[in-house]
Write a structure and sequence with these properties.
The complex is a heterodimer. Chain A is mostly beta strands. Chain A contains no helices and eleven strands. Chain A starts with a strand and ends with a strand. Classes of the chains: A mainly beta, B mainly beta. Chains A and B meet through strand 4, strand 5, strand 9 and strand 10 of A and strand 4, strand 5, strand 9 and strand 10 of B.
Chain lengths: 113, 112
């Protein structure tokens, strides 16, 4: 129940294409769903996040789609650029008390120039 | 406003030794969480500190312990190091109850 399952493990996209990464969860106590971007040798950086009462959130080229009934959410990167090449992690926060974050296993994205 | 900082950047220890990692939280943040990130994996929650007390723990043995100081900075201590402890250790700070947490650059620990 504590797991967040992320797919695909790796993704190769042409420059200008759309990158889509999916995550699924089981625990309905999760109340906040962030996406992090991590470059080699760096800590994860908060990219975009959504709460379960919202079905979609867009910030620039990044969009989160959230399906509460299916317990799934996804990250869409529009007009993907070589600089977007990084590892992306979805996460889910269990609110109240510890505010513990559970992370997916990551998706290594490579955008070809 | 300064971000989350961690020290040291890299560390090499021998199995059985003890290690202390340090984290300074982002200005205004009163909660610190520690994560272990093995190579090719997502961060795994170790524990969280708020008001200088442990406030939740992941599935890590007692040889992983921590401290939080009045200025909200924090330490992670690992005793009796094992080879499997080799990982990137990440510190994240947040304001209690706020949704966003911000990570430091991590400390790369290698146990030989």
């Amino acid at each position: 129940q504590q797991q967040v399952k992320q797919s695909p493990q790796s993704l190769i996209v042409q420059k200008g294409g759309i990158s889509i990464i999916n995550c699924a969860y089981e625990n309905t106590a999760f109340d906040y769903f962030p996406w992090y971007q991590q470059f080699p040798g760096k800590g994860p950086a908060l990219l975009i996040a959504i709460r379960p009462d919202v079905s979609e959130k867009k910030e620039g080229r990044f969009t989160i789609s959230f399906n509460k009934s299916a317990k799934q959410f996804s990250l869409h990167i529009m007009d993907s650029q070589p600089g977007d090449s990084a590892t992306y992690f979805c996460a889910a926060r269990r609110g109240a008390g510890t505010y513990k974050y559970i992370f997916g296993t990551g998706t290594r994205l490579k955008v070809l120039a | 406003e300064t971000g989350v900082t961690q020290s040291p950047t890299h560390l090499i220890k021998t199995r059985g030794q003890q290690v202390t990692l340090r984290c300074s939280s982002q200005s205004g943040h009163n909660t610190v969480s520690w994560y272990q990130q093995a190579l090719g994996q997502g961060p795994q929650f170790i524990f969280q500190y708020y008001r200088e007390e442990e406030n939740g723990r992941g599935n890590f043995p007692p040889r992983f312990s921590g401290l939080q100081f009045p200025n909200y900075s924090s330490e992670l201590n690992v005793n009796a190091l094992e080879l499997d402890d080799s990982a990137l250790y990440l510190c994240a700070s947040s304001f209690r109850g706020a949704e966003e947490q911000y990570f430091g650059p991590g400390t790369r620990l290698t146990v030989t």
